[in-house]
Amino acid sequence: MQFVHPPVQAALTGPQADHEGQGGQHQDECHEGQDQFCRHGAKSTGLAGWGAARLVRVIDVKHLTENPDLYRASQRARGADESLVDQMLSADAARRSSIAAFEELRAEQKLFGKRVAAAQGEEKQALLAEVKELASRVKAAEAEANEAQAELDRLQRLFPNLIEDGVPAGGEDDFAVLKTV
Q: How many angstroms separate the Cα of 138 from the Cα of each of 37, 90, 94, 161?
């Protein structure tokens, strides 16, 4: 992850994410042939994969969680909706709890697998029925975690950057021309 501004992250997607800041020279050194892994563990995808990467700027949720008043003040100075800060905080909390629930169910599912392997006869059949029910709960929890992550991602893309110190309050309609060149 590359920080564009302390509270804003630039997230690369695609093959460039593993070679951020390295440029094409790094690709040539590490990826001389197809289907090879470089010393960074990134798989070569050829030149076509490198052009497919895109840069997405998002707010750092950890920074927002630690400094919500800073973000509220920024929104207030912009004349934007301050409730977006609270929406992001609640979306992050929902994401964290749904991931924890999913991981807990997944761990239970793995333990069940060991119990089923050791069981015999009717006990094994009863455990298999429980495993099927647990598998559906795991799938539902995973879907919930994915939805929570998608909602947080959506809110992050909506959130504007923090304002710099010294920037006058107001939105685009409240500008003042300082100098015409």
A: 33, 23, 17, 36
